[in-house]
Automatic annotation (TrEMBL):
Residue span(s) of domain RagB/SusD: 312-589
Domain of life: Bacteria
Protein name, UniProt field: RagB/SusD family nutrient uptake outer membrane protein
Domain annotation SusD-like N-terminal: ranges: 47-205
Subcellular location: Cell outer membrane
Length: 590
């Protein structure tokens, strides 16, 4: 959107100066024309785009009712407590995503001119694949732009962002208006259609010529050629399955309450159908990974990963981090030489039901306030370190969190101590040791999309479209999905989950249950911030903690939230609205 994006691209491509995109190259430097004879250089355009994908663990949980942080200067803490403005915006995607889209558009305008290989057949397949990746990634970045910046103008118009499908050179008109939300959604769908047309579902080797998908047989009938381009060497690049998964994300966003408007044509049925197209690929509810609850610490599975292979739970992930302990050093309690950054709230702890499936507020759950962690949903122990948690770290340590516990793990004892009485356990491996005198590091991966997310998206959309047990044109319902997810978690397995059976007969109760299951299953994975907004749920819930040294019955307030209603939608960057008068700001933002 801005001229400086052009210069950023030029610099990132190691060109000789800011003007090299538009003037002849100097000796020993490359310009865009040279991508035609240098396939690696051409592919570098896409490599830069992959590097800019927003991180999955962005810790926006700090700005929700699920967590706070002991990092007093953290941008999300400041956001939650009153400093969120159009000039100070931790969720800003404007520069990052439009910069990536500029790369993509420049690549797409030149991809057909590149000599991708010496032989004609692989050259055509490489071109096809990389254009498919580019279209898919353009849709991806448009999704992140809409999630962060779409909203209603002061006049009540539902707007998205400017749509860029051509590279903007130095002569382009940068003062472009925002397109409608509907136009942006349709542009995403169009790009995803092309991605699915050009890409295989997954990058896997085939064993015979007959296995080449029909749409690629017009280019080659040789499995060796197909495997060279579309085989396992391309794993973790954007593929058809990822395109379908992003279609499900986009449709769920568009169908949500925050974006309901006569101009928006996406329905809950669309969102359910999009999610089902992904889930059907793995056999529907029978494909739910049995170990997906603990995807982050399935140690033998993680340690065995190689050649870009995914665990059953994962649709897309980042590259493996080998010999790493960054998550643990940031989030372990201080007694384990961690910084305790992520502090789960009592609000979140209270959202975990009893093991028999009833909420803790329901007398049939037999919740004991004096023993609050007994007979709870097993996920509580897997995701959160609470007072008395055992088996933590390589030393199998018991953690005590009361302010008078006499340990550094107690509430507010030191800067790295918890503020709530809880530490995050999810995302961490317990076989990592952060002791500087005897450090043990392990392999980790960060997801980009999990199947569990898509299951939950289907459940939400299907319930809204057809009710708890309606199936549309599919073979499973919202109820079927939630039943599988709770069974996997170990909830209601001894009594037939009667609370779920109650919800099965009531769309509104099922909605609340689905939203709560999403909250639990995806906690600390940077969904809650966005879910609250697209649902238009309460944003200013005060974050609470529990100090067992004071009282097991009474929690305490940790951090007040100061969000305003207009903050369901993020702002257009203030600097952009100053420079370009065609950019309309979202209502409420200055």
């Amino acid at each position: 959107m801005k001229k400086k994006i052009l210069f950023f691209i030029a610099g990132a491509l190691i060109l000789s100066s800011c003007d090299d995109l538009f003037t002849p190259a100097k000796e020993n430097f490359k310009d865009v024309d040279q991508m035609y004879t240098d396939a690696s250089y051409a592919q570098g355009f896409l490599v830069n785009v992959y590097r800019s994908i927003p991180t999955y663990y962005d810790n926006s949980d700090y700005a929700t009712d699920d967590a706070v942080t002991n990092q007093k200067s953290h941008s999300f803490l400041k956001m939650a407590t009153g400093t969120w403005t159009a000039s100070n915006n931790p969720i800003n995607q404007w520069q990052n995503s439009f910069g990536a889209i500029q790369y993509i558009n420049l690549f797409l305008e030149n991809a057909d001119k590149v000599k991708w290989a010496e032989d004609e057949e692989p050259a055509k397949l490489f071109c096809m694949r990389m254009k498919g990746e580019a279209y898919g990634m353009r849709a991806l970045y448009m999704y992140y732009l809409l999630r962060a910046h779409a909203g209603f103008s002061a006049e009540g118009q539902l707007l998205g962002v400017p749509i860029l499908t051509e590279f903007q050179d130095s002569q382009a008109d940068f003062n472009m208006p925002r397109a409608t939300f509907e136009a942006c959604i349709q542009q995403i769908y169009d790009d995803l259609d092309l991605a699915e047309e050009y890409l295989p579902w997954e990058y896997e080797n085939i064993n015979s010529d007959n296995e080449i998908p029909a749409r690629f047989q017009t280019i080659t009938k040789k499995k060796e050629v197909y495997n060279r381009v579309m085989g396992h060497y391309a794993r973790q690049l954007f593929n058809g399955l990822i395109a379908k998964s992003f279609r499900a994300r986009v449709a769920l966003l568009a169908a949500s309450p925050a974006f309901q408007d006569p101009s928006n044509t996406t329905t809950w049925e669309d969102a359910a159908d999009a999610a089902a197209s992904v889930l059907d690929y793995i056999g529907g509810t029978n494909g739910l990974a049995s170990n997906g609850v603990t995807y982050y610490c399935n140690t033998s599975e993680i340690d065995a990963l190689k050649e870009g292979i995914n665990p059953k739970e994962i649709i897309w992930r980042q590259n493996l981090e080998t010999n790493s302990n960054s998550q643990e050093s940031q989030n372990f309690p201080p007694s384990l030489f961690g910084s305790g950054y992520m502090n789960p709230t009592q609000n979140l702890v209270d959202a975990f039901p009893m093991a028999n499936g009833y909420p803790i507020s329901d007398a049939r759950g037999y919740y004991d306030i004096e023993s609050p962690y007994v007979n709870r949903d097993p996920r509580l122990d897997k995701y959160i370190i609470y007072n008395g948690s055992t088996g933590i770290g390589t030393g199998q340590k018991t953690i005590v969190t009361g302010s008078k516990s006499g340990t550094d793990d107690g509430i507010n004892v030191k800067e790295t101590s918890t503020r709530t009485g809880y530490y995050m356990k999810k995302r961490l491996r317990m076989d990592v040791n952060c002791d500087p005198s005897y450090t043990t590091k392990k392999t980790h991966y960060t997801p980009r999309i999990r199947y569990t997310e898509i299951f939950l998206s289907y459940a939400e959309a299907a319930n809204e479209a057809w009710g708890p047990t309606g199936k549309g044109n599919h073979t499973y319902s919202a109820y079927d999905v939630i039943k599988k997810i709770r069974e996997r978690a170990g909830v209601g397995t001894d009594n037939g989950d009667p609370y779920l059976e109650e919800c099965k007969t009531n769309k509104d109760k099922m909605r609340e249950l689905i939203r709560n299951e999403r909250r639990l299953e995806l906690c600390f994975e940077s969904f809650r911030f966005w879910d609250l907004r697209r649902w238009k749920n309460k944003l200013d819930e005060t974050a609470r903690g529990l100090d067992v040294s004071v009282s097991m019955k009474n929690g305490f307030e940790v951090e007040e939230r100061t969000f305003k209603d207009y903050m369901y939608y993020g702002p257009i960057p203030y600097s952009e609205t100053l420079k370009y008068n065609n950019l309309i700001q979202n209502k409420g933002w200055m």
